[in-house]
């Protein structure tokens, strides 16, 4: 299957490719309760305690007040659900911060500041030294005369060594002004 990338053609790219929006959330407001309960009851110990609590509702086989079992069970589920909700909210905030980070793109020869979630396939992203790379990129130019770029991938693989990347031979020696005018 062939894949075509249209440079600086947001309309075509928007129809063919997914957005650059980051989402690490586990839950939504609509699915939190059922999904969290499913996860809670997929643990064997929780199933066991639910069975015991249900059996204690039957007054013929137990002399114990059902509240003595249901109270702690509900408390444990509530604490666990609250912790999951808090963790998911923090993931949401982290995603929001990453999605709203501003980056430079070059369109029709003009550098424009946009949010990283608005980057489309085919956009020319302008990065400076020590900038975080906001998406998968093809390197088409560097300020180095030999076309060398050093990339730290610690966020991806944990390695702090700089990795060497070279621009393609077809882009070697291309003038930066020409890069601005690519359409």
TrEMBL record:
InterPro entries per record: ATPase_P-typ_TM_dom_sf, ATPase_P-typ_transduc_dom_A_sf, ATPase_P-type_domA, P-type_ATPase_N
Recorded superkingdom: Eukaryota
Pfam families in UniProt: E1-E2_ATPase, PhoLip_ATPase_N
BP-aspect Gene Ontology terms: phospholipid translocation
Transmembrane portions of the chain: 44-61
Keywords, in A-Z order: Membrane, Transmembrane, Transmembrane helix
Molecular-function GO terms, alphabetical: ATPase-coupled intramembrane lipid transporter activity
Entry GO terms, CC: plasma membrane
Domain P-type ATPase N-terminal: 5-70
Domain P-type ATPase A stretches: 99-161
Listed name of the protein: Uncharacterized protein
The species this protein was found in: Citrus clementina
């Amino acid at each position: 299957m062939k894949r075509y990338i249209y440079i600086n053609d947001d309309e075509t790219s928007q129809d063919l490719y997914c957005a650059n929006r980051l989402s690490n959330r586990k839950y939504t407001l609509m699915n939190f309760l059922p999904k969290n309960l499913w996860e809670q009851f997929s643990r064997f110990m929780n199933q066991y305690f639910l069975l015991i609590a249900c059996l204690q509702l039957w007054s013929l086989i137990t002399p114990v007040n059902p509240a003595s079992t249901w109270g702690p069970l509900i408390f444990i589920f509530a604490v666990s659900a609250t912790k999951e909700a808090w963790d998911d909210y923090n993931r949401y905030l982290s995603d929001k911060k990453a999605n709203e980070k501003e980056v430079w793109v070059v369109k029709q020869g003009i550098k424009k500041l946009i949010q990283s979630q608005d980057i489309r396939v085919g956009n020319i992203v302008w990065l400076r030294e020590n900038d975080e790379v906001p998406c998968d990129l093809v390197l088409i130019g560097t300020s180095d005369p030999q076309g060398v770029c050093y990339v730290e991938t610690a966020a991806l693989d944990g390695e702090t060594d700089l990795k060497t990347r070279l621009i393609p031979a077809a882009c070697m020696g291309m003038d930066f002004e020409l890069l601005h005018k690519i359409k």
